[in-house]
């Protein structure tokens, strides 16, 4: 597959903190934390077709348990989950040295729009605003899971 050009609109999609796993992992695990089961399960199916192990959760409590039990390397988090009693969840995760290599992607809203600087401050490594083209997420994850120096996309 040839690399598709990214559009210049950072408000729709951006990766400001690219990460790459230090070694090739035998199990490539991604968690999609999204309130809408149709969106979350769609991502799980599509990522499964790409050879990634993916699971969907609908709230921060389930996400916390899955992170501790399953140890995913990448998290795609609906920004609506970080509100209320769980505000600061992503920042705490980002500041925890055990999760320094975890890729944190925000699945941000289109109405109301999540402000990119706020997402950066929260600790996300990038974001994709709904509706999010799957090819962009797929390329970011392929590069993240690729052995050092090898682009998988």
UniProtKB/TrEMBL annotation:
InterPro entries listed in its UniProt record: CheY-like_superfamily
Domain of life: Bacteria
The protein's name: Response regulator receiver domain-containing protein
Native source organism of the sequence: Caballeronia sordidicola
